[in-house]
Amino acid sequence: MATAGTPPRGTKAGSSNKPQPITITALDGFLLSGTLHLPPQPIVTTQSTQHPGPKNNSDLSSSATHKTEVEALTKVVIISSATATIQDFYYKFSNYLSQELGMIVITYDNRGVGRSMPGSQQQQLSFLKAEQQRGSLPVGNATAPALPPKSNAHLAAQAQPEKPGAGKETKEKNPLIGFEATIVDWSMQDLPGVFNFVLERFPHNPTLFVGHSVGGHILPAIDSYYTRNLERCLYISVTSAYWRNMNSPLFTYWFFYMASPVVNARYGFYPGKTLWKSMEDLPKGCFETWSYWGSFKEYMLGGNPEWKPAFDRFKVPVYSLYFSDDDFSSTSAPKIMDSMPNAMRRCVGLDPIKDLNMKKVGHMGFFFNSCKEKLWKTAVHSWFMNGQALDRKQIKELAMAASSYARL
Description:
The chain is of the alpha/beta class. It has 14 helices and 10 strands. It has one domain: Alpha/Beta hydrolase fold, catalytic domain (Rossmann fold), CATH 3.40.50. Helices cover 37% and strands 13% of the residues. The strands form 2 sheets. The protein has an 8-stranded mixed beta sheet, sandwiched between helices. α7 runs antiparallel to α8 and α13 crosses α14. The longest helix has 19 residues. The chain is globular. InterPro entries: AB_hydrolase_fold. This is AB hydrolase-1 domain-containing protein.
């Protein structure tokens, strides 16, 4: 039986299964757009054999066998996005995890971002959810029929007759105007809904987590019921946005507390894409959470102090990577790690030029294909496949070897 990370003989790692659109239900019923990346080999979701329990307390052989079988289950990876970043941004990294490491990968858009918009997009997602509930979504095995190749727009078009004059261009109201959502909703409603999706379909499979920026900030806040299968976490550029910790504190203060409130009031949402062609548009409340947290030295725990007991209880091992050329904050990642005092953790800062022989990584660049050889195949592979968190020296040595090999 195939195990995660070991494709069957004759299976080419790059012969990918096409990613499938999925619908994820948040705890409050809001529908989120997601994507399911399946590995090329059969998915292992249950133990192949059952072993009786140990005859006495000193006989650990059965337990050891059971542990081996659990480790053989295909791993599931949840990728939680950065603020105002769509799930499609993580496509290449997701493809690496699924097609080359043999893992199941789930990406999603938080409410108010990308395809998880309110209004008509919710209707389209409801059609997709109904399609999945009719049995088209693979549930834990590679032989289940795949989701039909229909886009959300196609499903919506089937259900809605064309209106007169539909061919004429009309200026539509931005669906984020008046939409109430905060980053707290992303944490307490959306992310638990994603874990629920995994628990329902892959109830026994070990789960891994990738948190990019705010995607890491919010994880420890959720109830441990949802993270009970979570084995390890990888944090990427999970730094503090406390304004004094930012690379340009005065600009950050002006941006958070002077300029943006005026712009957001004018537009009714944060017009990151609409006005500045930077990042994505955000619900007004999400930006307000971001700037509110940024006024506290403790960042998210300053803005939501009721989360501290959950952070204290969080014990899942965390491996955090951050970069000296981070566009926002290049030094504050260790402060975020200190907010989880009882978790095993390693925080490694890297200089792209000195350690990786790369011009730039920044806040977003880890997920570019340029980091595949020097970070994905070294630090990520070691952490997700072997549970080993490489230190700076080890990453540098492997990155230099990759550079030398590339010149041959």
